[in-house]
């Protein structure tokens, strides 16, 4: 077994070529890869991980049925466990469902082109139950208008606060899902705490950590590569189908709110897809004009840039007092 943490140089190029031959792209966020070589030292099976996500798993068609996928996945799982990650997910093609089931994974959701699995039985059901547990009983009453906002909040800005306030004017209760992706300037835990603190005076807002079940490295891996044109529409559609079919119904969500996106093409494309897909499931999509300061929209990227450059007066003008207090305590 050839291992890379991650691969570099010639080994990396050979891995990319092998994956290309299996109609897969190498994800630049990969942190570890494991490959099986034949007698001529050519790759015949490979797999990689990024955080708790198993990805880019492939076997040369000439070597199917030799148990190579099991060997690769076992090596990846061992690596993950050694790094303290016991809950694992993967994102693959539906034709691979039975293979991964035999390796201890359970299907969360599937479409014609995308399959999402995890190694925890009923993990998704437990996620929904945890959300329902902290949701007020009144929010479950028939006739109540329940909305949702899904956001990164990296960090929580006055723009996010404005979006939530405006959304709350148009529904009785609002679920705010804070994305859990770890490839962010601020940790998932810190971002969640910032949103909790920043909305604690809004009694009809319910804040959740989104886990791996919403836009993330698992379900929408190109989302965070903002400098690239959105390359795989199937990932976007999958994420929205998952929300519409499995998250919104048990929470009676009938409205999804998002800020307009004048800057990022990727997020703009995602908003367009929302407006095309969610209404098919009875979920109204409402875009709210972004809050501005001067002639510029307030964005988390502006805050991060100001933090990097030490312009803390700018930071203070762009975030709620609760976020400012949180950041200053952490610095």
From TrEMBL:
Record Gene3D superfamilies:
3.40.630.30, HUPs
Signal listed as a keyword: no
Domain N-acetyltransferase intervals:
1-147
What name is this protein filed under? [Citrate [pro-3S]-lyase] ligase
Entry's EC annotation: 6.2.1.22
Q: Which InterPro entries match?
A: Acyl_CoA_acyltransferase (IPR016181), Citrate_lyase_ligase (IPR005216), Citrate_lyase_ligase_C (IPR013166), Cyt_trans-like (IPR004821), GNAT_dom (IPR000182), Rossmann-like_a/b/a_fold (IPR014729)
Q: What class of enzyme is it?
A: ligase
Q: Looking at the record's lineage, which domain of life comes first? A: Bacteria
**Is the keyword Nucleotide-binding in the record?**
yes
